[in-house]
Specification:
This protein has three helices and six strands. The chain is α+β, with helices and mostly antiparallel strands and 129 residues long. A six-stranded mixed sheet has the order 1-2-3-6-5-4.
Length: 129
């Protein structure tokens, strides 16, 4: 269920009109040729979350936003839009159901040449259909 979740989340984020106008790429891994800003899945890990009635997974997923900005709040609006879109992910997916989505933590850092990186970590609990 981890791989289908990754695909569903990338498609869901890329289909958002607000994010589509602000991001140059929404991809599963860091793009080799894309100008800033872009959003990619940085890492995932999963564990068993099965129940008596069927298989399940708990998937921890980290998204990394790369953008430009000299101010500490340069990416605040974009991060808020990403968080809202993730919270609205439909529960019914192809092959599984999203039971819960929980924000875990975020980390932001300033890099050279006015570059910023924001890491957003989430926990998804899934049950197979």
């Amino acid at each position: 269920m981890e791989i289908p979740l990754r695909a569903a989340l990338v498609a869901w984020l890329a289909a958002d009109p607000v994010l589509g106008n602000q991001l140059n790429a929404v991809v599963e891994e860091a793009p080799s040729r894309s100008s800033l800003p872009w959003l990619a899945i940085a890492a995932t890990a999963s564990a068993d979350w099965s129940s008596k009635s069927g298989p399940g997974r708990e998937v921890r997923l980290a998204l990394e936003l790369h953008c430009r900005g000299d101010r500490p709040d340069a990416a605040a609006g974009l991060v808020a839009a990403i968080e809202q879109r993730i919270a609205a992910l439909p529960a019914a997916q192809d092959g599984f159901t999203v039971v819960t989505v929980q924000f875990l933590r975020a980390r932001a850092e300033q890099r050279g040449e006015s570059r910023r990186a924001v890491l957003l970590e989430y926990r998804f609990r899934l049950l197979a259909d």
